[in-house]
Specification:
The complex is a heterotrimer of chains A (175), B (319) and C (682). Chain B is mostly helical and 319 residues long. Chain B contains 10 helices and 1 strand; from the N terminus they run ααβαααααααα. In chain B, α1 crosses α3, α2 packs antiparallel against α8 and α3 runs parallel beside α8. In chain C, α1 packs antiparallel against α5 and α14 packs antiparallel against α20. Classes of the chains: A alpha/beta (175), B mainly alpha (319), C mainly alpha (682).
Chain lengths: 175, 319, 682
C-alpha cells in the first residue's frame, strides 16, 4: 500500500483543461429556461444508452472518466437509472430491437432533459443507415439536442458536445 | 428559563448545521478521492448543486406507485434528521440529546431503512426486491455488532445518553482502554456496512447485480431523490460524528460560550476531515466484496465487539 | 365484601355474565338466523370486553385487591376469586382484544354463512364464549382448583375453535397436536400446583403465598410452572403446536389465541414465580433468559422462511414470547441478586411487551384475516398490490408491521428499548458470567429485532405492494366497516402506547408494587414528555417529541418542496426499457429471504432441489425448470419424532401384557386383589 500511495503522490493531478462548447454541434434549439439550464449545467447526471453501437463510442465515453479528461471534475457524473438522469448520451444507429427500449428510456427520464447523440451512427446513421435492422440517426426515434460526429469521436469532442448541450447558447461558464 | 431557551435554540442551530454540513462532508470525501486518483476534483460544494438541481426537476412516478412511495422520502429524511438532532456535534448538554439515546438512534436508522425497503418493493420490479432483500440482510447482520460495541461503551460510560457518554470520555482524559480499541474497530466496520461504502456496497456502481442501497432508489427522482440522497449523506456524517464523540471527543464544547463553541466547530471539522481521508484511503485500497462474504465481514466486527465487551468485563470493571 | 369498593369485581362478574350470554345467544344462530351470532353474540362479547377493560383498569389504576368466594366447587373448598393489579392488567389486555375481535367478527363470520364452504355458526359462538370465559376466570382465580378448571376450559375450547373447519385433515391434525401439548402442559402445571399445595397445606393461593419453600422445592415448583405455562406460551422447544394451530383457526380467534391465550402462559409464570413462590432465584432467571433468547432467535428465523402469512405471524408470536421471557429472565436475575429497582425494570419491560404484543399481533392477525376474507388466499406468493385494492387494511397492517419491527414511535419500540436498558444494567451484577451473558443475549435480541424488521418488510411488501400475483388478489375489495373498526382500534392503541410510555409505566406501578414491593419512580421524574426509566443521566427517550418532529418534517417538506412544483407525471416503472413487466418478474417471498437462508442455513432443515425437464434428442432442449424448496423445523426431527418413536417403542414393549386371553386378565385381577389386601393389612 505504501508503494501505491508513493506513486499517487509522485504522479500528481493529471487533468487537462476542458474544451469550450461549440454551437455548430447543435441539432435543435429548445427553449429550456436559462435558470433550469444553469442548475442542470452545474450538476449534470448522464445516462448512457447503447442503442446498437459497436462499442467504439463506448470506449471513448469510458475514457471521459479517466484522470485526463476527468468529466467528474466538471460536476458531471454518470448514473445508473434514467430516472436519476438529466441527459441521455446515446450511441449507435438504434437497432430495431433497441427502438422501443430507447423510447421508453427517454420517457422514463424526468424533465428537463437533454439528449446528445454520439458518433456518426447516432448523427446520421453512419455505416448502417436506415434499414430493416436499424432506424438510422437517433433523432428519428427521440428528439436530439446535440449531435457529436466522428467514428468514434474523441473524448474531447464528446465532452464538447455535452458542454454545448448544457450551455444552450449561453456564454460558456467559467470552469 | 432563559438558559433553557438558549439551550434549545443552540440545539436547533446545531441540528441545522449538521444537516447543512453533511453534503460538504460528501464533497470533501469526493475531493480527497479524486486527488488520490490523480484527477482534479469538483468543488467541495458540488453536492449542494446536485441537491438543488434535483429539487428543481419535475417528478416522474410509476403508474402503480402508491402513497407509500411518495411519503417514504419524507419519512426517511425525518428519521435521519431526528437522529442528527440527538448526536452532539459541537456541544454536549444540549436538550435534544435527551430525546434519543444511542439505541433510539439505531431505531431511527432502522425506521428509515424499513420504509426505503418498502418503497423499493412498491414498484414491483426485480431491482427493488433485490435491493430491499440484500439491504435488510446486511442490516440484520450489522445490528448485533453495533449493539455489542454500544454496550461496551455504555458499560464504561454508565449511560446510553450520547451527551453523557461523550462527557464521560471527555472528562476521563487520555486513557487507553483496550475495550474501546476493539469497540472502535467494530464500530468502524459497522459504519462502513451501514453507510453502504466499499467493501460492503459500492455507492457509484451502475451494475444492478452489485447494488445494495442504490438498487432500492433506482425509481426515485427529483425532490424525492434529493431527500434520500441528502439523508444518506447525513447518515454518513452521523456515524462519523458518533465515532468522534465516543473515541476522540476532545474539543467539544461543554459550555455555551462563544469561544467554546467556535473551538468545538473547529475541532469537529478537523476530525471529520481526517476521518474522511481515512475512509477514502480505505475505499481506494479495498475492493467490493461479493455479497456472501459480507456475513464474514460483519461476523468479524461482532467478534471484535464481543472481545471489547469481554475485555471490559474481565479487565476494566473492578468487581 | 363492601359494594362500593367491590365495584370492579362486580364489573368483572358482569363481564363473565356477558360472555355466558354471548355463548347462549349463539345457540340460536342456526342457518336461517345468522343474525343471532352477528348481532347478538358479538354484541354481548363487545360488552364483555368493555366490562373487562373497565374492571381490570379500575383495579389496576386504583391499586385495588378484591377477593370473593363463590359457593361452587367442592363442599369444603369454595371457589376463591381475586382481582388484583396483575389480574387487572391482563384483564385489560384480554378485554381490548375481545372488543376488537367483536367489532371484527360480525362481518368476518359472514364467510361461514355466505361463503363457498358454509359452517354451522352455533359451535363458533359457543366455543368463543367458553374460550373467553376460561381466560377471564383463570385471571380471577385465587385457588388452584378454579385455575385448573378454567385453564382446561380455555384449552378445550381452543381445540374446538382450531378444529372449526374440520373438513380438512390438516386442520384436524393441527387441533390434535394443540390439544396434546396443551394437556401435557396442563399436567405439568398441575404438578407445580401440587408441590405448592403440599407445602402450603391447601389449594388456595393465599395458603401458597404464606408458605416459605425450601430452595429445592421452590426450584421444582418453578420448573414445573415454567415448563407447563411455557408450553402454552409457546417457547422453544415446546412451540410446535403454535405454527400449525394458529393459522387454521378463524382469524379473529387466531388474534385472540395469539394475543391473549399465549399471555395466559406468561401470566401463569409471573403469578407462580413472583407471587406464589415469592422469592425468585437468579438461577431461574438464567434459564428463562436462555430459553427466551433461543425462542426469540429461532422464532424469527423460522418466521422468515414462511410464505403462509398466518404461519409467519404464528412464528413471530414465538419470537415475541421469547422477548418477554428475556425481560422476565433478566428481572429474575436482578431480583435474585438483590437489585430490586433493576428487577422491577425488567418486569415492567416484560409486561409492557406483553401488552404491546397482544395489541400488534392481534392487529396483524385481523389484517391477515381481512386479506383472507376478500381473497381466500393465505399464501404470500399469490398476493401483491393490495395497497391499491384494500387501502385501509394495508394501512392497518403497516401500522402493525412497524410496531412489531420495534420502530419508533410505535409501542414495540418502547418495550424493546426498556428490555435493552435492563440488559445494559448488567454491570451492576457481581457474577462475571452473568455480566457476559446478558450483553450477548442483548446482542442476539438486536439481531432478532433486525430480522423481524426484514421479515415484515417481506410480509407487507410482498402482500400489499408491487403487482398482484394471482387473479383473485387482483380483484380484491376493501373489507366491511366493522372489520376496519376492529383493526383501527388496535392500531390507535399501538400508536398511543408508543407515544405515551411514561403514562403506561406509571399505570403499571401497582403491579410491581404488588409483586416486588417496588416501582420505578424515576420513570416519570421528568414529566410525561420524557421516559427516564433509571435516571435522566442513564437514558432518556421522548416519544411525543419524536412523533411531533416527524410530523413537522413532513409538513415542512411538503410546504417547502411542493410549492410551485409541477404535478408529477405518471409513467411506467423503470424496467430497463423492455416493457411487458409481469408479476412473475417481481421478487417473491422465497426470493426475498434467500440471502438469509444462505447465511443462517444451519438453523433449518432445508431441502432444495432444481428439477429440469428436457426434451429427448441428440441435443436436449430444456422445456421446464422447477425449483422445490422445503424448509422444516429441526425440533420435529430432533425432538418430537424421537420422543414419538420412544413412546411407541415403549408402548409396544409394555403391550406384551395384553395377551387377549381372558384367563390372563382374570389372573391379573386376582394378583392385584391379593396385593391390595396385603397392603391394607400392613
Amino acid at each position: 500500500m505504501y508503494q501505491i500511495i508513493k506513486q499517487i503522490l509522485k504522479t500528481g493531478i493529471k487533468t487537462e483543461t476542458p474544451p469550450q462548447p461549440d454551437e455548430a454541434l447543435r441539432v435543435e434549439v429548445r427553449n429550456l429556461q436559462e435558470q433550469i439550464l444553469r442548475h442542470v449545467g452545474s450538476a449534470l447526471a448522464i445516462r448512457c444508452v447503447d442503442a446498437g453501437s459497436c462499442n467504439g463510442c463506448e470506449l471513448e465515453i469510458q475514457a471521459l472518466n479517466n484522470a485526463y479528461y476527468n468529466i467528474g471534475g466538471l460536476g458531471i457524473h454518470f448514473v445508473a437509472s434514467p430516472r436519476h438522469a438529466d441527459m441521455l448520451l446515446v450511441t449507435g444507429p438504434v437497432s430495431r430491437h433497441m427502438e422501443i427500449a430507447l423510447k421508453r428510456t427517454y420517457d422514463a427520464t424526468p424533465e428537463p432533459k437533454l439528449v446528445v447523440a454520439v458518433g456518426d451512427c447516432g448523427c446520421n446513421g453512419g455505416l448502417f443507415g436506415e434499414s430493416y435492422a436499424s432506424s438510422g440517426k437517433i433523432s428519428n426515434v427521440i428528439p436530439v439536442d446535440v449531435a457529436v460526429p466522428g467514428c468514434p469521436p474523441t473524448p474531447t469532442a464528446i465532452l464538447q458536445g455535452i458542454l454545448t448541450a448544457v450551455t444552450g447558447g449561453l456564454k460558456a461558464r467559467a470552469i | 428559563m432563559n438558559s433553557q431557551s438558549i439551550a434549545w435554540t443552540l440545539a436547533a442551530a446545531q441540528t441545522l448545521l449538521f444537516i447543512l454540513a453533511a453534503p460538504l462532508l460528501a464533497g470533501w470525501v469526493k475531493r480527497v478521492k479524486c486527488h488520490l486518483q490523480n484527477r482534479a476534483a469538483p468543488a467541495v460544494w458540488q453536492p449542494y448543486r446536485d441537491l438543488a438541481k434535483l429539487i428543481k426537476k419535475n417528478l416522474v412516478l410509476a403508474e402503480n406507485a402508491s402513497w407509500l412511495f411518495r411519503a417514504v422520502p419524507y419519512i426517511v429524511f425525518g428519521a435521519t434528521l431526528l437522529a442528527a438532532a440527538a448526536v452532539p456535534l459541537i456541544a454536549v448538554h444540549l436538550p435534544t440529546s435527551a430525546i434519543a439515546d444511542v439505541i433510539v438512534l439505531v431505531g431511527f436508522f432502522a425506521l428509515a431503512r424499513f420504509f426505503t425497503a418498502l418503497a423499493a418493493l412498491d414498484i414491483g420490479t426485480a431491482f427493488g426486491g433485490m435491493g430491499a432483500s440484500r439491504e435488510m440482510t446486511v442490516a440484520a447482520l450489522a445490528e448485533p455488532a453495533m449493539l455489542m460495541a454500544v454496550f461496551t461503551l455504555a458499560m464504561t460510560a454508565h449511560s446510553t445518553n450520547l451527551s453523557v457518554a461523550t462527557e464521560t470520555v471527555l472528562q476521563a482524559g487520555l486513557v487507553l482502554r483496550p475495550s474501546f480499541l476493539f469497540a472502535l474497530l467494530a464500530l468502524l466496520m459497522v459504519a462502513v456496512a451501514e453507510c453502504g461504502r466499499i467493501p460492503v456496497d459500492n455507492p457509484a456502481t451502475h451494475l444492478e447485480l452489485t447494488m445494495l442501497h442504490e438498487a432500492m432508489i433506482l425509481e426515485y427522482n427529483g425532490r424525492h431523490l434529493a431527500l434520500i440522497e441528502w439523508a444518506a449523506q447525513i447518515k454518513l456524517m452521523i456515524y462519523a460524528v458518533l465515532i468522534i464523540d465516543f473515541f476522540f471527543p476532545w474539543g467539544i464544547a461543554s459550555e455555551f460560550s462563544a469561544s467554546a463553541l467556535s473551538v468545538g466547530v473547529l475541532a469537529v471539522t478537523a476530525k471529520l476531515m481526517l476521518l474522511a481521508m481515512l475512509l477514502v484511503v480505505w475505499e481506494t485500497v479495498l475492493a467490493k466484496m461479493r455479497l456472501f462474504r459480507v456475513p464474514q465481514f460483519l461476523g468479524f466486527a461482532f467478534l471484535l465487539a464481543l472481545l471489547g465487551m469481554l475485555t471490559n468485563v474481565v479487565l476494566e470493571t473492578g468487581g | 365484601m363492601n359494594t362500593a369498593n367491590g365495584l370492579p369485581l362486580l364489573l368483572a362478574y358482569a363481564a363473565i355474565v356477558c360472555t355466558l350470554l354471548s355463548g347462549a345467544v349463539s345457540l340460536f344462530a342456526v342457518r336461517r338466523h345468522p343474525g343471532f351470532l352477528h348481532f347478538g353474540s358479538f354484541l354481548f362479547l363487545f360488552l364483555a370486553g368493555a366490562a373487562s377493560i373497565a374492571a381490570g383498569g379500575w383495579a389496576l389504576l386504583a391499586h385495588l385487591t378484591l377477593t370473593d368466594q363463590l359457593a361452587f366447587g367442592l363442599p369444603w373448598l369454595k371457589w376463591h376469586l381475586r382481582l388484583d393489579p396483575l389480574s387487572g392488567f391482563f384483564l385489560v389486555l384480554l378485554g381490548t382484544l375481545v372488543t376488537a375481535a367483536s367489532l371484527y367478527g360480525p362481518s368476518y363470520t359472514r364467510e361461514y354463512t355466505h361463503g363457498k364452504a358454509p359452517q354451522p355458526l352455533p359451535p363458533l359462538g359457543v366455543f368463543t364464549a367458553t374460550f373467553v370465559l376460561g381466560m377471564q376466570m383463570l385471571l380471577l382465580a385465587d385457588d388452584a382448583l378454579v385455575f385448573m378448571i378454567f385453564w382446561e376450559i380455555m384449552s378445550l375450547s381452543g381445540y374446538f375453535l382450531v378444529a372449526y373447519q374440520h373438513q380438512h385433515a390438516a386442520n384436524r391434525h393441527a387441533a390434535f397436536l394443540y390439544l396434546l401439548l396443551a394437556h401435557v402442559g396442563a399436567l405439568v402445571i398441575l404438578l407445580s400446583f401440587g408441590v405448592l399445595a403440599a407445602f402450603g397445606g391447601g389449594l388456595t393461593f393465599d395458603q401458597m403465598r404464606a408458605t416459605h419453600l425450601a430452595p429445592l422445592w421452590a426450584t421444582l415448583a418453578f420448573l414445573f410452572a415454567f415448563l407447563g405455562f411455557g408450553t402454552k406460551a409457546g417457547m422453544v422447544p415446546l412451540h410446535v403446536w403454535l405454527p400449525d394451530a394458529h393459522p387454521v383457526a378463524p382469524s379473529h380467534i387466531s388474534a385472540l389465541m395469539s394475543g391473549a391465550m399465549l399471555k395466559m402462559g406468561i401470566y401463569g409464570i409471573v403469578r407462580v414465580s413472583y407471587d406464589l413462590i415469592g422469592e425468585v432465584r437468579w438461577e431461574w432467571g438464567l434459564l428463562v433468559l436462555v430459553i427466551g433468547t433461543a425462542s426469540a432467535l429461532l422464532g424469527v428465523l423460522y418466521a422468515l422462511m414462511q410464505h403462509d402469512l398466518k404461519r409467519l405471524l404464528a412464528y413471530h408470536s414465538i419470537e415475541n414470547i421469547g422477548i418477554i421471557l428475556m425481560g422476565l429472565g433478566m428481572s429474575m436475575i436482578f431480583l435474585g441478586t438483590g437489585h430490586k429497582i433493576l428487577g422491577t425494570l425488567g418486569l415492567v419491560a416484560a409486561l409492557y411487551h406483553t401488552l404491546n404484543h397482544a395489541l400488534f399481533k392481534g392487529l396483524l392477525f385481523l389484517g391477515a384475516g381481512a386479506v383472507l376474507y376478500r381473497t381466500h388466499e393465505r399464501d404470500l406468493e399469490r398476493m401483491g398490490g393490495l395497497i391499491h385494492r384494500m387501502p385501509v387494511t394495508a394501512f392497518m397492517f403497516l401500522v402493525g408491521s412497524v410496531a412489531i419491527s420495534a420502530l419508533p414511535p410505535f409501542n414495540g419500540f418502547v418495550s424493546e428499548w426498556l428490555t435493552f436498558q435492563t440488559a445494559l444494567q448488567a454491570p451492576a451484577l457481581e457474577n462475571g458470567v452473568l455480566r457476559t451473558m446478558i450483553p450477548i443475549s442483548a446482542a442476539l435480541l438486536a439481531l432478532t429485532g433486525a430480522l423481524a424488521a426484514a421479515c415484515f418488510v417481506k410480509a407487507f411488501g410482498i402482500a400489499f405492494l408491487g403487482k398482484p400475483r394471482s387473479r383473485r388478489v387482483a380483484h380484491a375489495r376493501e373489507v366491511p366497516i366493522g372489520m376496519q373498526g376492529g383493526m383501527a382500534l388496535l392500531a390507535v392503541l399501538c400508536l398511543l402506547l408508543g407515544v405515551f410510555p411514561t403514562s403506561v409505566i406509571m399505570a403499571m406501578a401497582p403491579i410491581t408494587q404488588l409483586l416486588v414491593q417496588d416501582s420505578l419512580p424515576s420513570a416519570a421524574a421528568q414529566g410525561w414528555l420524557w421516559l427516564t426509566p433509571i435516571s435522566p443521566q442513564v437514558a432518556s427517550y421522548s416519544a411525543p417529541l419524536v412523533l411531533i418532529a416527524i410530523v413537522v418534517v413532513f409538513g415542512l417538506g411538503f410546504l417547502l418542496l411542493k410549492r410551485g412544483a409541477v404535478p408529477a407525471r405518471r409513467c411506467y416503472p423503470w424496467d430497463c426499457g423492455f416493457g411487458r413487466l409481469t408479476s412473475r418478474m417481481e421478487y417473491t417471498s422465497t426470493a426475498f429471504t434467500q440471502p438469509i437462508r444462505r447465511v443462517f442455513g444451519a438453523v433449518w432443515k432445508v431441502d432444495e432441489a432444481v428439477e429440469t425437464t428436457a426434451g429427448a434428442g441428440p441435443i436436449p432442449r430444456v422445456t421446464g425448470i422447477r425449483h422445490h424448496l422445503h424448509v422444516q423445523d429441526w425440533s420435529w426431527l430432533k425432538v418430537y419424532q424421537p420422543i414419538g418413536r420412544l413412546v411407541l417403542a415403549a408402548a409396544r414393549r409394555i403391550g406384551f401384557i395384553q395377551t387377549g386371553n381372558i384367563h390372563t386378565y382374570l389372573k391379573y385381577s386376582l394378583a392385584t386383589l391379593l396385593l391390595l389386601l396385603w397392603i391394607v393389612s400392613l
